[in-house]
Amino acid sequence: MKTKSLFSALILHMLLSIFLISCDKFEFSPYQTENRKRPEELNLRNLQKLKVNESSADDTVTILFSGDSQRFYSSLDALTARANTLSNVDFFVLAGDISDFALLQEFLWVYDRLQKLKMPYFCVVGNHDLTANGSEIYTEMFGPKNFSFSFKDYKFLFHDTNGREYNFNGTAPDIEWLSEQVSDSAKWYVGVSHVPPYDVDFDKALETPYRNLFANTPGFILSLHGHQHNGGDIYYYDNNVRYITSYAVDKSECLLLKLINGRVIKETIYY
Amino acid sequence: MFGQTKKESILPMTAGTIQFAGSTGFLTAGFFKGTKSERVQVGLLYGYTPEIFGGHLHSLSLKFIYNPVRFDLGRNFYSEPVQAGIFACQNFGKNLDLTWPSQYPSDYYWWTASLRGHVFLSTTLGVRTNRAKHIDRIAWYFEANTNDLYFASYIIKNNHTSLSLYDIIFFGTGLKFYFKSPNTKE
Q1: Which of A24, A235, B22, B107 is the most buried (most CB within 10 A)?
Q2: Candidates B54, B76, B101; nearest CB to A32
Q3: Residue B136: closest CA among B45, B13, B37
């Protein structure tokens, strides 16, 4: 009988342990795609937050722009703290590579920090985010990899340009989706994606139709990217489309972009 | 592999295990062989995570345990307060490649695609099952582990000021069934 009661004690310990599932510290796999803490549809939720302020009389759109937060948690803390000292920023854009290894925990660590921002934020998918199970995690947490929204006079096209992750199979970027998005006669268009079209990780077969689509779309003024970590700013194809790449989060610099009647005024913010 | 001789086996201890969580699967099962003193154990484990818990994922792990001390707690209970060890876990899933696919130049991504290295600490509470036919002891253990990529996240760029060690540590718990053998300790 004594053995039986001791055995029962062990079973009790097991049940107690299983009860502790709820604390999310019981990891099934680094590659699991969900747990109880994982949020959903963050880009949509932030769009709803953004739309609350759309009726403002001011037609200027102010964006705080950074990218490649991959593993730079301490720097991301500094960035969010600095961002919250800025006034009149409409939204924050993270230009991909949210994670380094595309693990759920990394996405959650970044989410914990972005949630501290006072302003809405939008994250586009980067190449690192698409390794392992990252595509599924990104889609569940943030929403579709290609999405667009209009704010004031501007239409923003967030899209996947990580061609190498698809073995350059002609699906990223999705030219057909982009063509549909620029056919609605918005006043101004802004593209947001991770890999710029002149980078070796962009699908070379799609570079010409991609840049031509932007160049031939009236009002397409700006294409924002990450990946290169360098804060580049260039009219790369000698047309009206300006290509700006973000600093990586660890560079302690990000860009404040003011869009005023189709003009882009850039300011560097240090943190 | 663990051949026994009539004189004395190097690894006479045999145990089966079933584990909940612990970064190798929602449920993981396997077996261990250990030295006569049971200070050193080596195990082979299979883990599975169903879709409802973020899978489908499978894993195979090779685990080494160092178990330095044991204290008897009365006649039937005993405690092994701390074990330390490592395990290599090969993860399998529809999006997990054994090696990086050919579209990447060499060293494009520096980490191994789906093979993770883990370190762990655990604690064990056991009970002797005197009247069971094949089972000598049953032990409950609680384990904390981290892996190479979480550790790489912790150490880079002053991240220790942002992430805590607790952030990169994850738990598992399980039961271990020690089978009776000629060399089983009483």
Answers
A1: B22
A2: B54
A3: B13
ipTM: 0.92
In chain B, DSSP assigns E strands to 13-21, 27-34, 40-49, 57-66, 71-73, 77-92, 115-128, 135-147, 170-179
Do the domain assignments include residue A73?
Answer: yes
**How many other C-beta atoms can be found within 10 angstroms of the C-beta atom of residue A88?**
11
Higher confidence at residue A8 or residue A88?
Answer: A88
Strands A188-192, A220-225: pairing is parallel
Instruction: Give the one of A28, A104, A132 whose C-beta lies nearest to B96's C-beta.
Output: A132
Range of the domain at A207: 58-270
Query: What is the tally of structural domains in chain A?
Result: 1
Is the CB of B125 less than 8 angstroms away from the CB of A10? yes
> Does the beta-carbon distance from B157 to A21 stay under 8 Å?
no
Query: Is B185's pLDDT higher than 70?
Result: no
Can you list the domains of chain B with their CATH numbers?
13-99+108-179 (2.40.160)
CATH of the domain at A72: 3.60.21.10
**A12 falls within a domain:** no
pLDDT at A38 over 60: yes
- For residue A73, give the 3-state DSSP assignment: helix
For residue B186, the model assigns a pLDDT of 44
Distance of CA B44 to the CA centre of its chain: 8
Phi, psi of A166 (to 5 degrees): -110, 20
Question: Could you read off the pLDDT of B44-95 as tens digits, one per residue?
Answer: 999 999 999 999 999 999 999 999 999 999 889 999 999 999 999 999 999 9
Q: Where are the beta strands (DSSP E) in A11-75?
A: 61-66
CB atoms A29 and B129 under 8 Å: no
Instruction: Report the distance separating Cα A84 and Cα A71, nearest Å.
Output: 21
Interface of A with B in 47-76 (CB under 8 A): 71-76
pLDDT in tens, B139-149: 999 999 999 99
